[in-house]
Amino acid sequence: MSTYWTGKRVRLRGIEPEDWQASMRFDGHAQHQRSGDVLHPPRSAESYRVRAAEQAVANPVGDCFRLAIEALDGGEPVGGISTHEADPRAGRFAYGIGVGADHQRRGYASEAVVLLLRFMFGERRYHKCEASVYAFNDASLALHRSLGFVEEGRLRDHEFFAGRHHDVVRFGMTAPEFAERHSLGEL
After folding, report:
1. Residue 157: pLDDT above 70?
2. Is residue 1 part of a domain?
3. Which CATH number goes with the domain that contains 165?
4. Which of 152, 115, 102 is nearest to 130 (CA)?
5. Which pTM value belongs to this model?
6. 159, 134 in Cβ contact below 8 A?
């Protein structure tokens, strides 16, 4: 059975309490943490359990929500995707994605992004999606360019970690740009 949230490789779904183990595994890779966020101190298994349990019962706030990315070939969580800064008046939102180091380069991220954008543009009437990527994250820069995002600017020396400041590249994609490259779906 196919649903709106299922592609050829992944399914986007709500976070479940048992996802805590995958989150803990993903955070075990310092380079992975730094590619999308900053390095965090170690946390207890219990803190991962509590956080996953809280997210499993959390209701979305407007159009801001978090979803797990589940691989269809095995059914395990391989990452997460979320929307934030959703502004229905202006018609724009931002999103973030993370795929575990062991699951990268398999097309999971690109498919998850397309599924999410299809929903936000085609069902929620948003006009523009924005994304921020660290300038050193070549894989994420390439992903966004391949999906059709346009580089709109660079925030110089914007974030500090690993002993120095790093640039952040800002990307944007409008609904018409998305529809030109990717289907908005069918009834």
Report:
1. yes
2. no
3. 3.40.630.30
4. 152
5. 0.89
6. yes
